[in-house]
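Help needed: design a sequence for this.
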């Protein structure tokens, strides 16, 4: 169930491991998968990352199936990105998944887009998710965003914090600076580490207490256990 690129599928056929390859979730992530593969544009294929959040989870709970990578999946009649009649200069602050998607869609519609981030690279907290065992495929999602923004002409200004002067002259400014953990307000927490530090490789002791049992808490536990 992880055949999500033409290269993997072709490799299985070429090695005699299969006579035919069938896919499901990858076509939610990108309905033009086959057309792009056939025309030599595999790098443009939005990759399925096997998150299951909007496809299987929605299906099993009786909701409309969609896709975290492609929000138009099963919403094609209501969510359309039509070309604009009057292009604007658009600044997007934050190069995580929300900012990259915004920049990509705006540039694809014809706007002039500049994407800002104080980090040296694209991806935001997707780069943290890549460190979690089993989520290595998120690297492919970051690479796809980078490829598509370059192809569509979005400019990336990385490596320094944006200020008001940087945003002068833009018609629209989109703030997509991501999330920050809630403050648990526990005495002595100044000696604790945050998940960002841990997933970036900070040293921890042999016995670790995790505060927070949501998705990030589970990911950090998996990371430390491995």
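Sure. Designed sequence:
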């Amino acid at each position: 169930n992880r055949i999500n690129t033409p290269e993997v599928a072709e490799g299985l056929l070429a090695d005699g491991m299969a006579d035919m390859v069938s896919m499901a979730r990858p076509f939610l992530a990108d309905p033009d998968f086959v057309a792009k593969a056939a025309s030599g544009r595999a790098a443009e294929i939005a990759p399925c990352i096997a998150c299951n959040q909007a496809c299987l989870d929605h299906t099993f709970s009786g909701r409309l199936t969609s896709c975290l990578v492609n929000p138009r999946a099963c919403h094609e009649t209501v969510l359309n990105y039509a070309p604009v009649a009057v292009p604007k200069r658009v600044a997007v602050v934050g190069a995580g998944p929300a900012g990259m998607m915004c920049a990509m869609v705006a540039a694809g519609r014809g706007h002039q887009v500049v994407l800002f981030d104080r980090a040296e690279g694209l991806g935001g907290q997707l780069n943290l998710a890549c460190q979690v065992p089993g989520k290595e495929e998120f690297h492919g999602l970051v690479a796809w965003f980078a490829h598509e923004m370059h192809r569509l002409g979005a400019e990336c200004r990385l490596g320094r914090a944006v200020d008001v002067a940087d945003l002068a002259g833009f018609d629209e400014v989109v703030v997509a600076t991501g999330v920050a953990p809630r403050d648990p307000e526990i005495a002595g927490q100044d000696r604790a580490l945050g998940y960002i530090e841990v997933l970036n490789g900070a040293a921890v002791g042999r016995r670790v207490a995790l505060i927070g049992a949501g998705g990030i808490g589970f990911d950090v536990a998996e990371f430390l256990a491995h």
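The two ends are 23 Å apart (CA to CA).
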